[in-house]
Amino acid sequence: MLLLALVTACSEPNAPAASRHGSVLLVTLDTTRADALSCYGERTGTTPEIDALAREAVLYERAFTSAPITLTAHASMLTGLAPPRHGLRDNGLAALDPAAHTLAEAARAAGVQTAAFVGAVVLDRALGLDQGFDVYDGPPARRSSSGHPTERSAPEVIDAALAWLDKRDRARPFFVWVHLYDAHHPYTPRRALPEKSSELERYLAEVNEMDTELGRLFARMRAESLFDRTLVCVTADHGEAFGEHKELTHGAFCWNTTLHVPLVIRRPGGERAGEHTRELVSVVDVAPTLAEALGATLAPDIDGRSLLAPRAEGERGAYFESYAGYLAFGWSPIAGWIDEQGKYVHSSRPELYDLALDPEEQHDLVAERSPGALERFRRAIASVVARPALTGRSGGIDDELRAGIQGLGYAAFDATGGAFPDPLEPGQRPSPHAMVGAWRESLLTQELMNRGRNDEAAQALRRLLASDPGNFFLRSQLASALIRLGQHAEAMDTLRPLLEAPRVPPQILYKLGVCALRLGRREEAAGFMARAVELAPDEARYRAKLEQIRSGAPGRVEDE
Fold first, then answer.
1. Cβ-proximal residues to 234 (8 Å cutoff; 6+ apart), any chain
2. Per-residue model confidence as pLDDT tens digits over 490-505
3. How far is CA 231 from the centre of its chain?
4. What is the predicted pLDDT for the residue at 21?
5. Residue 187 DSSP SS3
6. What is the pLDDT of residue 425?
7. Bridge partners of 3?
8. pLDDT band at residue 399, thresholds of 50, 70 and 90?
9. Can you tell me the distance from the alpha carbon of 341 to that of 277, in angstroms, rounded to the nearest whole number?
10. Within the chain, what is the greatest distance between any pair of CA atoms?
C-alpha cells in the first residue's frame, strides 16, 4: 500500500499554534511494491505524478514494512509500534486496542482537523484505525443485496477527499488520509489491455491508474498554493509477488518482494532534492515523522523515529513478521530482523541472507555462520517482543464484517483463539517458506473448485492434507469440495479435528451442521447450527438454517 503524506503550512496569522507546523495528507496505495514506482528505476512511465514528486525529494532505497499484511502494517504506520506491541497480527481478526495512541489522536489534540477516506473494508472503522479521525469514510462493511464488493475505486475515493477539502476549515491545519485499493488482486484495470496481458502488466496498469487519480488531488493542492511549503512522504504497507520464490500476491511469506517498500520524502523547500539514500528505515517511522511535521506529540516509547530528526548514532535494524501462515494454515510464525549484517528470518527453519551480495535471497547462509552470529539477530527480535505492549483488550470482529474481508481474498481465519506464541518459541510446525510449493498448489485447487472441478480439487487437497495435517485452511477447503460432491460423511470426518481448536470459527460449525442435516442427523445438525448462531448472531444465513432445521421444513441446503 503506497502511503503519501503531504505537509503544508498555513499562513493565517491568528491560526492555532499547530498551524505553524502544517497539514498532512496521507495517501496509501494498496499492494504497491517499490519497483512498481518508476522513480525506483526498474521501469519507466508507471507513476509520473509520484516521479515528479521524487525529483524534489529524498528517496530511501532500503525501506521495509513491519508485515506484508494491510491492517498490520497500517497499524504500525499510524501508531509507530511494531506488530507484537499493537497486537494486530492479521487482517480481520480484531480491532486496534482503544488504549493505542494514534497519529490522528495526537493530531487532533494539537488542534488539527482530521479525516480519512479508505478504499476497502479491510480497513473498516470497526477495526479501530478510525481512532482520532473526525471523519472516517469508507465503503459499506457488508456486501449489498446485489453482492457488490466491499471496496471502491480510486476515482470514488479521490472525489470524496476533494469534496471534504472544499468544505474544510481553511483557518486550521488538517490531517487527511486517502487510501486507494485498486492494485490489490484481482488485477482489473479500468482501461482496456490486450487480451493476453500478463498479471504483472495488469497490476502495473492499476498502479498507473492510481497515480493518475493522485494527479487530480495534487492539481487541487497546487491550485490552492498548498505545495509552496510541503513535506511529502511516500511509502507502502507491502509489496506483491509474481512468482518469485513461487509466491503469488502477499501475506504468509517474508521475502523482500513483499517486505521492501517505497519511501520518498519531500521536505519543505525541496531540501536534499533528488538525493538517494541507503539509510535503513521502516514503516514504523511514518507516525513519528508525520507527528513532528504536524507539531503533534506521540507516546515516548514507540518503536519508530522521526526521519526529520538528525540521524541517530549507531546501527539500526528493522523488525518484521507474518503470523498469517500460523493463523490460517497452522504453520510456524515468521519473525525477522534486517540490519547492516544481513536479513535473518526466524521460523522452525531459520534463514539468513546477505542482501548486499544476494538481493534476490537465493543463498541461505545459516549453515555457514556461527551460532553466535545468528544469536545477535534473535536478541534483536527478542528486544522488540519484550517491550511493553498494549494492555487493553482488542475488540472482536463480527462475522459479517469478517465475511466481507474474506470476500476481498483474505483468509481472516483463526482457530487459535487469539493465542499468539512468542516468535522465538521453539516448535515443530512447518516453516512457511518450506511450504510455499504446497501453498501454491492449494491456490490451484481453489481455481478448480471455481470451475466446478470439485473431484479433482478434492483429490489434490487430500494429498496436500496428508503431508500437512495441521493445516486449518486445507481442512476447510477439502470439506467444501466434499460437500459439493455430496460426500458429507467424509466432509464431517475432515472437519472434526477443528473442533479441538481453542476457537472454532462459526463457518466451520455451519458446514458441520449442513453435513449432519444431509446425513439425516437433525438433532446433531441443530446443535452445530446453534453454536454457529451463538458465535455469529448477526449472520442471517446461520439463523435461517437453524430455524429450518428446528421446524423440520424442507429447504435448499447451502453448500458452504
1. 2, 3, 4, 5, 37, 50, 53, 54, 57, 262, 263, 264, 265
2. 999 999 999 988 788 8
3. 25
4. 74
5. coil
6. 92
7. 28, 235
8. low
9. 18
10. 78
Q: Is 510 exposed, middle or buried (0-12, 13-18, 19+ CB in 10 A)?
A: buried
Strand partners, 62: 280
> Bridge-partner residues for 241, per DSSP?
249
Cα separation, 4 vs 6, whole angstroms: 7
Cell digits of residue 124: 473498516
3-state SS class at 445: helix
Percentage, residues of the chain above pLDDT 70: 89
- Distance between CA atoms of 400 and 402, rounded to whole angstroms? 5
How far is residue 477's CA from residue 449's CA, in Å, rounded to a whole number?
Answer: 9
Helices (H), 386-521: 399-406, 436-450, 454-467, 472-484, 488-495, 506-518
Residue closest to 7 by CA, chosen among 312, 311, 310, 308: 308
Axis crossing angle, helix 472-484 with helix 454-467, rounded to the nearest 10:
150
- How far is it, in rounded angstroms, from Cα 164 to Cα 517? 52
The C-alpha atoms of residue 174 and residue 164 are separated, in whole angstroms, by 11
Supply φ then ψ for residue 5, to 5 degrees.
-115, 130
Q: Omega before 502 cis (within 30°)?
A: no
Q: What is the mean pLDDT of residues 262-276?
A: 89
Grid cell 460449525 — which residue? 509
Lowest mean pLDDT among 23-32, 76-85, 222-231, 515-524: 222-231
Burial of residue 313 (number of CB atoms within 10 Å: 0-12, 13-18, 19+): exposed
Contact between 110 and 294 under an 8 Å Cβ cutoff? The reply is yes
Strand 23-29 versus strand 174-180 pairing type: parallel
Taking the CA atoms of 468, 474, 479 and 482 in sequence, report the sign of the dihedral they define.
Answer: negative
226 CB neighbour count, 10 Å cutoff: 20
